């Protein structure tokens, strides 16, 4: 039986979702625990990858397990063995051919910035002290909405067939001393959100005009865009699926 597991994690101690030679990934930690629980090697497939240090409020992975497992007991045991910075919120049956990766229809990321030094946001938000013109940043962010080639915001070495993404929403909101960027799309490229935020901050500081921002988007050249902002303030916030893949 195929199941979808909803997972969340604090990314500080991990080298992203997938393990790398120089660090442990969330995926391998979860696979180790599931393998011990079911006393057989277990492999899981995630809805996507996150970079090292990126946090996740909602992600899904699918796994094939014996039919008839007790979801509540499995959830309780799984969370008791997982480290404190990883939690599984739910387990749901899905159709046999459902894929956590390929059936996802929308993903949403959030980037958090604070204008003032705040020890309670340390490791969760970027302290940015320069004045920012939020309205100007939102006008530039609106240019991202739609189907575009986002190669200018992608890491150079990546194993994708194309750089086309359908961005549904992108914009900034202010909440007191915090500034939040939120972007939703059907897919994201490696480093894409952090490069976009870094470039929009250049717009907000007055270093880039809207005309220059458009030129960067059209250039398909990563060297023209701004620097990647730090990973510790980025969250994978939500992954959306068509309801028809779930079995009630």
Sheet/helix structural class = alpha+beta
Low-confidence stretches are: none
Mean pLDDT: 94
The CATH topology of the largest domain comes to: Alpha-Beta Plaits
Radius of gyration: 19 Å
Instruction: Indicate the percent of residues in helices.
Output: 10-25%
CATH H-tier superfamily of the largest domain: Pseudouridine synthase I, catalytic domain, C-terminal subdomain
| Principal-axis shape | globular
How would you describe the overall organization of this protein?
The mean pLDDT is 94. The chain folds into two domains: 101 residues, Alpha-Beta Plaits (2-Layer Sandwich), CATH 3.30.70; 132 residues, Alpha-Beta Plaits (2-Layer Sandwich). A hairpin with a 2-residue loop joins strand 8 and strand 9. With 248 residues, the protein is α+β, with helices and mostly antiparallel strands. Helix 3 packs across helix 4. Strands 1, 2, 3, 4, 5, 6, 7, 8, 9 and 10 form a ten-stranded mixed β-sheet that branches.
Overview in brief:
The protein has five helices and ten strands. With 248 residues, the protein is α+β, with helices and mostly antiparallel strands. Strand 8 (164-175) and strand 9 (178-185) form a beta hairpin.
Q: How are the SSEs placed, and which strands pair?
A:
Elements: E1 2-9, H1 26-38, E2 45-46, E3 55-64, H2 71-81, E4 86-93, E5 106-114, E6 126-127, H3 134-142, E7 146-149, E8 164-175, E9 178-185, H4 192-204, H5 210-219, E10 234-240
Parallel strand pairs: 3-10, 5-6
Antiparallel strand pairs: 1-3, 1-4, 2-3, 5-9, 5-10, 7-8, 8-9
């Amino acid at each position: 039986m195929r199941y979808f597991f909803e997972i969340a994690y604090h990314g500080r101690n991990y080298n992203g979702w997938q393990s790398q030679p120089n660090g442990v990934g969330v995926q391998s930690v979860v696979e180790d625990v599931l393998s011990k629980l079911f006393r057989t090697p277990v492999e899981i497939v995630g809805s996507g990858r996150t970079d090292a240090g990126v946090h996740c409020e909602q992600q899904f992975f699918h796994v094939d397990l014996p039919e008839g497992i007790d979801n509540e007991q499995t959830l309780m045991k799984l969370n008791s063995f997982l480290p404190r910075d990883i939690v599984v919120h739910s387990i749901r049956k899905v159709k046999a051919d459902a894929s956590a990766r390929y059936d996802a229809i929308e993903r949403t990321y959030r980037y958090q910035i604070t204008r003032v030094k705040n020890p309670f946001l340390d490791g969760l938000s970027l302290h940015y002290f320069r004045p920012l013109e939020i309205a100007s940043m939102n006008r530039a962010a609106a240019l991202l909405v739609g189907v575009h080639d986002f190669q200018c915001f992608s890491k150079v070495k990546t194993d994708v067939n194309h750089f086309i993404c359908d961005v549904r929403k992108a914009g900034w909101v202010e909440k007191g001393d915090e500034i939040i960027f939120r972007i939703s799309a059907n897919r994201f490229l490696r480093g894409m959100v952090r490069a976009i935020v870094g470039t929009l901050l250049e717009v907000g500081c007055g270093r880039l005009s809207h005309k220059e921002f458009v030129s960067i988007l059209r250039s398909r050249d990563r060297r023209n865009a701004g620097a990647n902002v730090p990973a510790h303030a980025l969250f994978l916030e939500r992954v959306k699926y068509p309801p028809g893949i779930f079995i009630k």
